Amino acid sequence: MSEPVRVAMWSGPRNISTAMMRAWENRPDTVVVDEPLYAEYLVRTGLDHPGRDEVVAAQPTWLPEVVEGLLAPLPRGKGVHYAKHMAHHLDLEAEADWTDDFRNVLLVRDPAEVVASYVRSREACEPDDIGLLQEQWLLDRWDALGADVPVIDSADFLRDPEAHLRWLCDWLGIAFTDRMLSWPPGPRASDGVWAPYWYDAVLASTGFEPYRPRAVELSEHDAAVADACRPAYERLRERRVRI
């Protein structure tokens, strides 16, 4: 039996990461896991997020246990494991060697759009909250190791989801299926317990929405947060997959 393909998709919040997880879960050969580092992150940082106690109770809070679960054998008939990760959940001061056991992909979005969306759900936003600084750190780390890690910009992706998914499946060495382009609306058993706080749009979705430019108005503080993350975004975007 061939080894399973284990995909780690690293993103920031308020991106298309949950819709991307829907696309992969709609494959009959794939198991998905939703933000497996979330509880560990909340316990380590002490942050108070919506549904914090539910998240901490629902997931392992010790990193080795999280990683063990990500590497566990797959159910019969499943050959792909897809993990949706938030890059800001990763502890950059701890060992990140465990990430090398996965086919890593970075998913990015313009920081002004991310911040504008983020502050509609949260009162405050700082540069470390939106994942781009951590994604640049990860890319630099993997580059130093000579790892092949693609970067996907969500704006490009939404202009042609099929072409990007075909490219990604080819890079992973698995067959593309058009089941990845649409899915039934509603919740999934695999959704994190935080879904009621964050997933309204995805729960109503049946596919990827076409890209449209966003009108962004930010406060002085929030504009400074976006500006602080822009160099990281531009570096990541330079490396994006071009279809």
TrEMBL record:
Keywords: Transferase. One of its GO terms (molecular function) is transferase activity. Pfam families: Sulfotransfer_5. The keyword Transferase applies. The keyword Transferase applies. GO terms for biological process: carboxylic acid metabolic process. PANTHER family: AMINO-ACID AMINOTRANSFERASE, AMINODEOXYCHORISMATE LYASE. Belongs to the class-IV pyridoxal-phosphate-dependent aminotransferase family. This is Sulfotransferase. It comes from Nocardioides anomalus.
